[in-house]
Task: inverse folding
């Protein structure tokens, strides 16, 4: 007979997952996907204890994976767009002009701003990291900027723009779940996101000033000459970027916008650089390679920059999503998730404790599931009535959901974003963690505001 899990049974799924993942990943360097499956096996054991059958668990996993399909489509589209933008010369152009004009001392501040603008325009942090981010991290390597610092600024900018964009999926999801107008939600987020980002800019500014300027000008000039010989860096290389911005401004969905930009990129690469159009389509699947340029002598430095993209480059991320959603689906189907959230919610006594508990629930869930969408939905639904009972505007809830899930997600090594940024930028979470200042400050500011009343909006009568 099926029963409700005890709190000890429910919380044990999270405790075991954290122990297995941190021990296996950090100490023994076991692939995160394997560790998530081990954690899923324990969660399945608890599910069987409370009366579920394997068929029930399959249903829960399938339901969770269904919610992941929009993210999977975006991931595949990102692989396509990176490969095609390499083919068209769009990303190489970003690298070329970045190397020419970015000052190493102000690189971190510039990286945040550029990445933020890209995310704000496109509504996707992942897309920003895979295009402008790849260019910026490549430039950082050439300018001898610390890659951990650079990745921290790039990721922070990407997440900032994503959070502030009305085109973002998580921004729309948070406003939808809490039934808040999306622009009211964005205005509410400014209370935490802008101060946290200003603090980050100050940190990056002084960190940049202290960085050693040991730029190899000869090597950079050689790379610039090589890029300009491979590509015709004219107006046309920017057209794929212009196409995606126009599509998103016209409210075309993210994936179709990215695919339209990719088709445009293949046309541009073929007509402008005289590359083989067949290679353009191959680049969207297996990624772009220097051999596609027709140049027989390409330096190792240039190869490192150009060998990017393709749907197959997204395989590890997709497998991680499947493994992570397996764990999340079992924990949710067994009722463990509801038990944990309901138990924690009993401690609500004031506005401060309400927001503190909301943040704690989000952090607990995002560390468990490694994805933001589940957190926003589950915690948002659970806490909505509590915010109403305390006469608080629901925008306080929608903001807190993003402060402690969307912003924190890149800092979780086994989460989809942590894996994604690590793979795309080639920098591990432990290297960039401390430099993603806004990502962890937003949750702290949310709690401070809760207890001080700063930025807390009451429900209008």
Result:
């Amino acid at each position: 007979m099926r029963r409700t899990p005890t709190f000890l049974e429910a919380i044990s799924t999270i405790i075991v997952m954290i122990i297995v993942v941190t021990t296996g990943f950090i100490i023994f360097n076991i692939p995160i996907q394997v560790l998530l499956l081990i954690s899923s096996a324990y969660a399945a054991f608890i599910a069987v204890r409370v009366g579920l059958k394997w068929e029930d668990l399959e249903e829960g996993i399938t339901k969770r994976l269904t919610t992941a399909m929009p993210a999977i489509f975006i991931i595949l589209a990102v692989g396509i767009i990176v490969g095609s933008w390499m083919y068209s010369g769009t990303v190489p152009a970003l690298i070329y002009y970045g190397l020419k004009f970015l000052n190493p001392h102000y690189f971190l501040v510039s990286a945040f701003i550029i990445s933020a603008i890209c995310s704000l325009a496109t509504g996707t942090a992942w897309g920003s990291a895979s295009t402008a981010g790849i260019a910026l991290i490549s430039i950082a390597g050439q300018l001898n900027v610390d890659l951990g610092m650079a990745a921290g600024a790039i990721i922070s900018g990407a997440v900032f723009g994503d959070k502030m964009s009305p085109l973002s999926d998580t921004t729309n999801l948070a406003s939808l779940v809490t039934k808040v107008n999306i622009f009211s939600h964005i205005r509410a987020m400014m209370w935490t996101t802008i101060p946290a980002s200003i603090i980050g800019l100050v940190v990056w500014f002084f960190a940049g000033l202290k960085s050693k300027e040991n730029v190899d000008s000869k090597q950079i000039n050689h790379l610039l000459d090589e890029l300009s010989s491979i590509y015709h860096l004219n107006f046309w290389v920017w057209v794929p970027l212009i196409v995606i911005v126009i599509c998103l401004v016209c409210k075309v969905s993210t994936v179709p916008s990215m695919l339209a930009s990719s088709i445009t990129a293949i046309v541009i690469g073929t007509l402008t650089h005289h590359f083989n159009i067949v290679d353009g389509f191959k680049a969207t699947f297996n990624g772009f390679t220097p051999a596609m340029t027709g140049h027989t002598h390409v330096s190792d430095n240039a190869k490192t920059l150009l060998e990017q993209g393709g749907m197959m480059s997204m395989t590890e991320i997709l497998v991680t999503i499947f493994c992570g959603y397996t764990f999340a689906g079992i924990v949710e189907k067994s009722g463990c998730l509801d038990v944990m959230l309901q138990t924690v919610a009993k401690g609500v006594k004031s506005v401060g404790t309400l927001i503190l508990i909301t943040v704690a629930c989000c952090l607990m869930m995002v560390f468990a599931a490694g994805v933001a969408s589940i957190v926003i939905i589950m915690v948002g639904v659970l806490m909505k009535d509590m915010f109403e009972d305390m006469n608080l505007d629901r925008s306080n809830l929608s903001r807190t959901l993003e402060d402690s899930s969307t912003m924190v997600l890149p800092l979780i090594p086994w989460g989809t974003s942590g894996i994604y940024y690590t793979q795309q930028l080639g920098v591990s979470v432990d290297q960039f963690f401390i430099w993603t200042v806004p990502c962890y400050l937003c949750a702290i500011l949310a709690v401070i505001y809760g207890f001080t009343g700063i930025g807390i909006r009451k429900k209008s009568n």
